[in-house]
Amino acid sequence: MDRRNFIIKSSILSGVTTMIGPHVSFSRPAEYVSKRPAKADRKFTSKAVEKVIREVKKAIGNEELAWMFENCFPNTLDTTVKFKVENEKPDAFIITGDIDAMWLRDSTAQVWPYLRLVNKDNELKELVRGLIFRQSKLIQIDPYANAFNDGPLGSKWESDNTEMKPELHERKWEIDSLCYPIRLAYHYWKTTNDKSCFDQDWVLAMQSILRTFKEQQRKENRGPYSFTRRASKASETLIENGFGNPVKPVGLIVSSFRPSDDATILPFLIPSNHFALVSLRQLSEIATEAIGDDQLALNAESLADEVEEALMQFGYGNHPDFGKILAYEADGFGNVLFMDDANIPSLLALPYLGAMAADDPIYQNTRKFLLSQSNPWFFKGKHAEGIGGPHVGADMVWPMSIIMRALTSADNEEIMTCLKMLIATHAGTGFMHESFHKDDPAQYTRDWFAWANTLFGELVYKIYRERPELLKKV
Q1: Cβ–Cβ < 8 Å for 148, 99
Q2: I want to staple 342 with a disulfide (CB 3.0 to 4.6 A). Which of 195, 240, 326, 401 is the partner?
Q3: Which tens digit of pLDDT belongs to each residue from 365-374?
Q4: pLDDT (tens digit, 9 = 90+) per residue, 73-124?
Q5: CA distance 5 to 367
Q6: Which is nearest to 172 in space by CA: 254, 109, 240?
Q7: Whole-angstrom distance, CA of residue 297 vs CA of residue 282
Q8: What is the model's pTM?
Q9: Can you tell me the distance from the alpha carbon of 407 to that of 465, in angstroms, rounded to the nearest whole number?
Q10: How does strand 18-19 pair with strand 8-9?
Q11: What are the pLDDT digits (tens) for 131-179?
Q12: Which residue, 269, 254, 420, 416, is CA-closest to 350?
């Protein structure tokens, strides 16, 4: 992804406002003035979301945390939504933030925390329904693309050696790009009992997803997708003429790129295959119970069974210090990679995605590894500790990993520790960032990253609903 991976150096001066980098204005944090756009400038407003903001803020004892929640929770709606009604159907295009393009992954994750509120706000419901409709159309344009333009606008990545189309922003094949739309549609249906999103476009998109997953099992050949890019970073392109490292066909699905948009090393990305397993089961349930498509259900269930069997055999490894744990990547030949990346799906996030119980012994054992310095992408610094990834590089912690650690924890002290780290590392901006330096949070990447902002809001909202006493103690 063409993320803005420059480091923004924060300068917070008493009583002074400083402009640093694009779109950034820092004021003295003690003032805790809302950083939301003026009401007239907000892209979308939800009465239900505004009510939640007021209620949760009252329940928070820490003024700084309350301020951060108010800034972050509505950030997707405030700044990234393009919504319209076209041919009597809602349509939503949701950009990722400082890049004017829509990722299938990010757009789903950005609206995810609002899903539980759609029955209280019909306009919010229409927004989510419109996103499902838009995603269905985009998948049909190209199931191998990760990010799209709002129309045939072309892209800075048109020179990539792959089958680019003017509607595409980027064409990096990532399993999770096709899982997130299923996750959104499934939980929208479960929340609302509304089947209207399962139209012919949606069915065609699902058929395309199944076909793509089958192609990337690479049972007979390497499939139609390849990708190379002229780049200085090895993680921006694929070796072996654009097909990546070899795999042994064992039933797992190749993901050429990670959810960070970095190239995989061993192409069977294990957390994404777990996510695919969950999504395929959800697709089968929709096909059976909502639309009565027995063939679609059978195809999804059959593929899910293959992936599950292969994960049981090839999705683990024996670590010299931690014993049997989940692998991050594998190749089917017996080779595995032990690490984790902050981007979701990650191994840490498997319970969040419904892929594994949080108290599963293997997950808990893996979690110990992930949150230790045996994980090569775990960093511990003066102000915080957490997981990063190759996308930004060494010593850069991703707030997303701290948030996910709290979202998958049942331990009050651990959750409190995560909240304190997040408060200590927003660099006075009131927003989450892509990453920050482990010893100096004022050095960070991306000033406008809506997914991270909304995910932080999701965490605070979850604590409010399930452990409200913690919000009084922070």
Answers
A1: no
A2: 401
A3: 999 999 999 9
A4: 999 999 999 999 998 999 999 999 999 999 999 999 999 999 999 999 999 9
A5: 28
A6: 254
A7: 9
A8: 0.94
A9: 13
A10: unpaired
A11: 999 999 999 999 999 999 999 999 999 999 999 999 999 999 999 999 9
A12: 269
Strands (E), 273-403: 316-319, 323-326, 329-330, 336-337, 378-380, 385-387, 396-397
Q: What is the DSSP letter of 334?
A: S
Q: Are 351 and 315 in contact (CB under 8 A)?
A: no
**Residues of 233-253 as b/e, b for ≥16 C-beta within 10 angstroms?**
eebbbbeeebbbbebeebbbb
Alpha-carbon gap, residue 70 to 412, rounded angstroms: 23
Q: What is the dihedral of CA 371, 372, 375, 381, to 10 degrees?
A: 90
How deeply is 327 buried, as exposed, middle or buried, from its count of CB atoms within 10 A (0-12, 13-18, 19+)?
A: buried
Q: What is the pLDDT of residue 31?
A: 79
- CA dist 247 and 266 (Å) reads 8
Query: Could you tell me whether strands 336-337 and 329-330 are parallel, antiparallel, or unpaired per DSSP bridges?
Result: antiparallel
Which pairs with CB-CB distance under 8 Å and at least 24 residues apart come from 399-402? Answer: 399/425, 399/426, 399/432, 399/433, 399/435, 399/436, 399/452, 399/456, 400/342, 400/343, 400/344, 400/432, 400/451, 400/452, 400/455, 401/342, 401/346, 401/348
Whether the Cβ atoms of residue 184 and residue 112 lie closer than 8 Å to each other: yes
Q: To the nearest 10°, the Cα dihedral for 414, 415, 417, 423?
A: 160
Q: Are 433 and 427 in contact (CB under 8 A)?
A: yes
Rounded distance, CA 369 to CA 387, Å?
11
Environment class of 152 (CB within 10 Å of its CB; exposed 0-12, middle 13-18, buried 19+) = exposed
Please, are residues 74 and 113 in contact by the beta-carbon 8 Å criterion? no
